Structures are given as structure tokens and as C-alpha cells.
């Protein structure tokens, strides 16, 4: 029953986040909270410091003013949000420009995430179109990736689920002076979408223990299923730092962020010579523990190493035992829920960062990988034991690793590590033709 003029006067004392929240109350509040006069005042005071000298004049601006009269309701609200969002993205992306010379990746990821108020959620959609949001993940940071783990006691039944979407979530109007308001307006950026129909058939089985089975969905999603109930126990996403913030912030709620194409250096690639001066940073971990963290320099391939649509980069040679190196600890992926904890053996999360000759990230991923017992013997006098293999493949390349298990010392030794980079990836990166 209160007159609109009085409500507008009250609304004029509120900040932008409060106005956006008021607009969700009912239709009348939505229309009043879109008032151009209120939003023009916010716009001018926060984004144009030179206008602040005329603050009294701005407050007294009449409805006949062209800035108000010629604009549709909500125009200055949209302009304010757009300008604030652009300023926020610029502030965050400025932090990402600082690169770690060791990995070639942004070194201020954690600081940028804190400034942006970034978090991650998953949205489960059933076959009837109903959606369920799962928040409050547990984070685990590594040198080149972050592992995000969701678990709870009331997951929807797996049989009725159709898709799972992974989003980066940031406050629509972040305020550096205050922590993010969980109930305030938020912005969603789609990172990946996964289809859960026939999950056990369409995904890769990573391993199992007494309680759960692990299934991998590309890119980098691990789903734990209770053995007896055939229901979701937890969901684990592995996010590589390369373009992590861009994908988590710059995309929209329906369209994923697409990175700009690489600008190749002129006359820097020769198909007769092949790739040269590449660097590899490799992490193997089980979420809570690290098994291997190493870097390899001066990787190259010659023309004879190009076949079947792949360029071969040999990192560790089976015959060169000087470059063989041990793995620390027993390989496995740790998991947990509200009640149970476990460790699925003979699998791990691989974080791979391949840098080109200029130090730019060329091929990056963070994904679960399983180990398999090979039928062949090691053939090496130095290592007498079982051979295990671990392979990973995506649209950009393949990774093939061979381990030898030494029973006496209870450790794995990596005796072979080979990367196969897709010629399509190289051609699109350099604008050449292999």
C-alpha cells in the first residue's frame, strides 16, 4: 500500500546488490528496483569519478533528462552491471598474467580466486528436466591443478540422471571490502557438460575398492559409485591451472569459454626438423598426496618420429637407465564422504603441462589414469619385476608410461615415458602442415 514515490526514495539509499535482491521479491519491487534514476546515480558515482563533483546535480536529475527519459526501464542497471563486470574481469585477469618460470603457468591463481570470490558447483539434471545444485566442495591445490571434491548423503538416484554440468561461480557484483554473499546474485560460467546416461558403459573404469567404483569422464571428471546401491558417492573434478580462471569466469551459463587461437612465430617451425626445445612438467598425485613432481627440458622429435598422425616426444627411454626415476609411495586415489574414507589403488591423477619452445602452454590436462599389469617382462637386468602400463589419450595427444614394480624395495620405477602429440594440434598451433 505504500506509494511508489516513497519506495523509490527508500530504494535510493540501497547499494546495487540490495537492489538486485529486492527485484526478486515481486513484480512491483522488480519494476521499482529497475528505476533509471537510482541506477544512473550508482553508475555515475562509482564509475565516473569526475562526476562526483556534481553529485548534488546528479541526485536532482529530473525524469525529463535525456539520460533517463530516452532510456527503457532497467537500461542503467544493465550498464552498471556490464561496466562493473568488465572492471572485475580486468582486475582478475591482470593477476593471471604473472607466470611461474618453473611451470609456465599463472603463479597467482590462488590470489586471483580469492579476489574473484570464485567457487565451483555441479548441477545434476534428471530425465524429467529437474535440476539439483550441489555446492560446498572440498578443494585440494597442487603445483599445476586444483582438485574439487563434492560429497553428501542425499544424492539423486543415478538411474534418473541425464547430465552433469560443472560451473565456475562468482558474485555478480564482487565487493573487495566484504566477503562474497552466498545468497547474493551470482554469475555462472559453464566449464564442462557430461552425459550420465549409461555411465558405467560410456565412461572409463578407473578402479575400485571394497566400497566404491571409480569412473572417468573426459575432461577430468571422476565419479564414485557405491558398489551395493549403484548410487553416486562423490564427484571429483580435476582442473588444470592453464585457462582455469578464464573458463571459470569468462564463459556464460550456457556457452563455454573458447580461448583465442595461438599466434605462431614466423619461420619458427620446420616440418623437416620437427618440434624442438619443448619442456614438460609432470605431476602424479592421489588428491591428498604427491607421488611425482618433475620437469623435463629440451624435448624434441625428428621427421622420422612422425607417423600415424602423431609426433613422438620421448621423455624417458627404456634403455637409458640414467633417466629412470622412482615413484614415492603406493599409487592410488584417495576419496572421502561424510562417513567413509578410502583409497583406490593402481590409479592416480596425472597433471601434464607441455610447453612449446617459447614457454607457452601447448598441451595441458589434469585427469585420472589407471594402471594395468602388462604381460611382458621388463627385459632389464637392473629391474627384475612386473611391468605396469598407464595410458592417457584425448583429442590433442596420448601419453604412454611404463612402470616396473620392485618387490624388494616396494616401489615403482618409471622406465619409459613417451608423448604422442596430434599433428592436427601442431598444425593448428603453428599454422603449418605436417
From TrEMBL:
Residues 1-42 form the F-box domain. InterPro entries: F-box-like_dom_sf, F-box_dom. GO terms for cellular component: SCF ubiquitin ligase complex. SMART domains: FBOX. This is FBX15 protein. The gene is Fbxo15.
Amino acid at each position: 500500500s505504500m506509494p511508489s514515490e516513497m519506495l523509490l526514495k527508500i530504494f535510493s539509499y540501497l547499494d546495487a546488490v540490495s537492489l538486485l535482491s529486492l527485484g526478486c521479491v515481486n513484480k512491483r519491487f522488480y519494476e521499482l528496483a529497475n528505476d533509471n534514476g537510482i541506477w544512473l546515480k550508482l553508475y555515475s558515482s562509482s564509475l565516473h569519478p569526475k562526476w562526483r563533483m556534481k553529485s548534488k546535480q546528479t541526485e536532482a536529475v529530473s525524469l525529463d533528462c535525456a539520460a533517463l527519459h530516452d532510456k527503457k526501464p532497467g537500461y542503467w542497471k544493465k550498464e552498471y552491471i556490464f561496466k562493473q563486470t568488465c572492471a572485475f574481469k580486468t582486475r582478475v585477469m591482470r593477476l593471471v598474467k604473472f607466470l611461474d618460470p618453473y611451470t609456465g603457468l599463472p603463479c597467482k591463481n590462488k590470489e586471483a580466486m580469492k579476489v574473484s570470490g570464485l567457487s565451483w558447483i555441479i548441477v545434476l539434471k534428471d530425465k524429467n528436466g529437474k535440476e539439483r545444485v550441489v555446492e560446498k566442495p572440498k578443494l585440494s591445490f597442487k603445483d599445476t591443478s586444483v582438485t574439487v571434491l563434492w560429497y553428501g548423503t542425499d544424492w539423486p538416484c543415478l538411474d534418473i540422471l541425464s547430465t552433469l554440468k560443472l560451473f565456475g561461480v562468482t558474485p555478480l557484483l564482487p565487493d573487495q571490502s566484504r566477503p562474497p554473499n552466498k545468497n547474493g546474485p551470482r554469475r555462472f560460467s559453464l566449464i564442462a557438460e557430461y552425459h550420465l546416461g549409461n555411465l558405467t558403459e560410456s565412461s572409463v573404469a578407473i578402479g575400485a575398492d571394497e566400497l566404491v567404483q571409480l569412473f572417468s569422464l573426459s575432461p577430468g571428471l571422476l565419479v564414485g559409485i557405491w558398489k551395493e546401491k549403484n548410487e553416486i558417492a562423490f564427484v571429483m573434478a580435476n582442473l588444470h591451472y592453464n585457462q582455469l580462471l578464464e573458463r571459470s569466469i569468462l564463459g556464460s551459463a550456457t556457452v563455454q569459454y573458447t580461448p583465442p587461437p595461438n599466434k605462431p612465430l614466423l619461420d619458427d617451425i620446420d616440418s623437416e626438423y620437427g618440434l624442438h626445445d619443448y619442456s614438460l612438467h609432470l605431476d602424479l598425485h592421489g588428491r591428498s598426496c604427491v607421488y611425482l613432481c618433475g620437469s623435463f627440458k629440451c624435448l624434441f622429435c625428428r621427421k622420422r618420429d612422425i607417423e600415424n598422425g602423431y609426433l613422438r616426444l620421448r621423455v624417458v627411454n627404456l634403455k637409458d637407465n640414467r633417466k629412470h626415476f622412482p615413484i614415492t609411495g603406493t599409487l592410488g586415489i584417495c576419496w572421502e564422504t561424510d562417513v567413509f574414507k578410502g583409497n583406490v589403488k593402481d590409479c592416480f591423477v596425472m597433471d601434464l603441462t607441455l610447453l612449446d619452445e617459447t614457454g607457452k602452454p601447448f598441451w595441458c590436462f589434469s585427469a585420472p589414469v589407471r594402471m594395468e599389469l602388462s604381460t611382458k617382462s621388463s627385459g632389464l637386468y637392473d629391474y627384475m619385476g612386473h611391468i605396469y602400463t598407464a595410458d592417457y589419450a584425448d583429442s590433442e595427444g596420448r601419453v604412454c608410461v611404463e612402470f616396473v614394480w620392485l618387490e624388494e624395495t616396494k616401489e615403482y620405477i618409471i622406465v619409459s615415458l613417451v608423448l604422442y602429440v596430434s599433428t592436427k594440434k601442431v598444425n593448428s598451433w603453428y599454422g603449418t602442415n605436417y
